Each structure stands twice: as structure tokens, then as C-alpha cells.
Amino acid sequence: MKLALALTERSDLQKRLDQLEERLQSNALVQEGEEPAEAPASLLTELDALSTRLEDLITRINLTNANTVADGLSLTAWIAKRDCLTKKIRIVRRFLNTASQTAMRSRGSEIKIRPTVTVRELQKGLDDLSRELREIDARIQEANWSTDLL
User: Fold this and answer.
1) Average pLDDT of 90-110?
2) Is 68:2 a contact under the CB 8 Å cutoff?
3) Range of the domain at 20
């Protein structure tokens, strides 16, 4: 199995577990004399099986990521780099959105609001970070599709 397929399965298992949690909650209580729509014991058995499969898959994915090297870095390092860059881009983008706002003044004597940075320069830097993020993500995706799961 390729790493990319394992990642897809992991995502599917996580969604199924979320749905299973909702189904369990919906069948936790019933009116006296009534039966639940689904048997909680059966749902709990399914929960055990899905949790065990997910745990195994996550372990194998993490081991594969740690042992797979692409362009001199492990996939784990590339993923960490991508995650941190994504967060940095989000923070800078929000900052730029705030710095780009203009305050409306009804009279010339009101206080002027000005940005604390040169928005254009910072936007160019953000564009460069976004390009870098796309390149990192492409490296990770390429490795995911060419690497066998351990």
C-alpha cells in the first residue's frame, strides 16, 4: 500500500469514528419500554475495531514518514516545515488584512489611522511564502504517492 492511500484511509477512519460517536450518543438513552435504533453493544464493538485499525495505521504512517527521505529531509521534517509555514502564512495574512484597512473620517480634524508596515512589501513576502508552501506540499504529495507504507 502506498503512503498516500494510507493517508486517505486514515482520514476515512477518522470520519467514521466521528460518525460512530454521534450514533453512540443518539442511542445512549431511550424511553422505558423502547429499543434504541442501533444496538450500543454493536456500535462499541465497531468502535474497538476502528480504533485498533486507526492506531495501527497512524503508527505505520508515522514510521514511514520518519524513515522516508525526500530532498535531504525526512517526510516528518517536511510535514513540520509545511505545518509551521501554513501557520505563519495565516498569521501574516490576518495581520496584512488588518494593516490594509482604512478608517473613514468625516472631518479632516479626526485622528488619522495609518498602517505600521509597508503593506506592499509584506504582501510580496507573503506571496513568496505561499509559493514555498506550494512547493513543499508538492514534494510531500510526490513522496506520498511513491513511498510504500512500512
Assistant:
1) 82
2) no
3) 1-67
Q: How confident is the model at residue 106 (pLDDT cuts 50, 70, 90)?
A: low
Q: Is the pLDDT of residue 100 over 80?
A: yes
If asked whether residues 86 and 20 sit together in one domain, one would say: no
Are 79 and 98 found together in one domain? yes
Which range among 39-53, 59-73, 89-103 shows the weakest confidence by mean pLDDT?
Answer: 89-103
Instruction: Assess whether 8 and 39 both reside in one domain.
Output: yes
At CA 130, angle to CA 62 and CA 149, rounded to 5? 20
Same domain, 89 and 18: no
CA distance 16 to 44: 13
